[in-house]
Amino acid sequence: MACRPPASSPPPGILPPGSFDAIICLYVLIHLPLPEQPRLIGRIATWLRPGGWLLATVGDSAWTGTEENWLGGPAPMWWSQADASTYRSWLRETGLLVTAEEFVPEGTSGHALFWARRLPV
Predict the structure, then answer these.
(1) Which among 30, 103, 26, 36 has a CA at the least distance from the CA of 66?
(2) What distance lies between CA 48 and its chain's CA centroid?
(3) Block means of pLDDT (10 residues each) for the chain, length 121 residues?
(4) Burial class (CB within 10 angstroms; exposed 0-12, middle 13-18, buried 19+) of 90
(5) What pLDDT score was predicted for residue 9?
């Protein structure tokens, strides 16, 4: 017996607009290639219902590179991040309202934490 999704289901990997009340994206975007990040932020904005929230940590300062044996592990960790003002602009360009922004210290640097909301219709 084979299981199939209903005919009205979107193709695998496609999320319909307005699918979520909130999306939490902590320490994820900074590990994607920088050119792909604005497009993904735009897609995330469409996945939120009107009035929905995005909580995200992103880069506070721009940097792309690797760190060997990150946290003592056997493999390198890779980052690609813009600065906080660029992320703030990308969020606003998608129609999200940035309601709060904080600096999250980590070692000698840190990250930016954003609360952003899709405006109710």
Answers:
(1) 30
(2) 12
(3) 57 82 96 96 96 97 93 91 98 98 94 96 79
(4) buried
(5) 62
Place of tokens 């939490």: 24
Q: What is the dihedral of CA 39, 102, 86, 92, to 10 degrees?
A: 60
What are the two backbone dihedrals, phi and then psi, of residue 40, each rounded to the nearest 5 degrees?
Answer: -65, -40
Quickly list H helices, 14-121: 37-47, 84-93
In contact, 115 and 67? CB cutoff 8 Å = no
Buried b (16+ CB within 10 A) or exposed e, 94-103: bebeeeebee
Beta strands at 20-25 and 109-118: parallel, antiparallel or unpaired? unpaired
Around 83, how many Cα atoms within 13 Å sit in the side-chain half-sphere?
A: 3
The pTM assigned to this predicted structure is 0.86
- CA distances for 64 relative to 31, 59, 82, 96, 118, angstroms: 9, 10, 8, 26, 29
